[in-house]
Each structure stands twice: as structure tokens, then as C-alpha cells.
Automatic annotation (TrEMBL):
The keyword Methyltransferase does not apply. Residues 24-71 form the TM2 domain. The keyword Membrane applies. This is TM2 domain-containing protein. It is a multi-pass membrane protein. Pfam families: TM2 (PF05154). The chain crosses the membrane at residues 28-46, 52-74. It comes from Paractinoplanes pyxinae. Its main location: membrane. Keywords: Membrane, Transmembrane, Transmembrane helix. It is found in: Membrane.
């Protein structure tokens, strides 16, 4: 495999930096779940505004949605990060094999 030209490496680094700036952290999501789970704070952090508002007004679906989210947060963070990475790489014109 040939070495990438300098301008291409720079473009890849810029794309990686842009992704890191929009990436969500699992640890932060779980901390927000622990502190504000019944109000949907972790969902607001993950950008699930509709579900967040529903949790806010129903106190986490009477606690049921909050309890279910403890098992779903990790998967949701990974899905959001995959989507955001794909969007950033597409914006920079990079085909991401990861």
C-alpha cells in the first residue's frame, strides 16, 4: 500500500479532529443517567430531544424508561458516534473503512 500524500494526511487529520469534537462519551452519558435519568438528561446529551421531553414530562416513564436506559445507553452512544463519524468523513470526502 502506498503512502498517502501530505495533503491527504492533513485532510484525514482534520476529519479526525472534527469527529473528536462531536463525539459523545459513554461515561458522560451514564453519569447524566445517574444524576438526571428520571428527567431524561442523558437523552438530551445524546440528542434524542423528543424522547428527552417525553421523559421529562412523564418522569422517565414513571421510572421504567430510566431503568431500561441503563442497558441501552452504551449501544445508543455507539450508534450516535458511528453516525456522526460517517457524516464527518463524508463531509471531508473520506471513505471510512472503520
Amino acid at each position: 500500500m502506498s503512502e498517502l500524500p501530505e495533503w491527504e494526511r492533513l485532510r484525514v487529520r482534520q476529519a479526525e479532529f472534527a469527529y473528536e469534537s462531536v463525539r459523545k462519551e459513554t461515561r458522560v452519558a451514564y453519569t447524566l443517567w445517574l444524576l438526571t435519568g428520571i428527567f431524561g438528561g442523558h437523552r438530551f446529551y445524546l440528542g434524542d430531544t423528543g424522547r428527552s421531553i417525553a421523559m421529562l414530562f412523564t418522569l422517565g416513564g414513571c421510572g421504567l424508561w430510566t431503568l431500561a436506559d441503563v442497558f441501552l445507553i452504551g449501544r445508543r452512544v455507539r450508534a450516535i458516534n458511528r453516525s456522526r463519524r460517517a457524516a464527518v468523513m463524508a463531509r471531508y470526502g473520506i471513505v471510512d473503512a472503520a
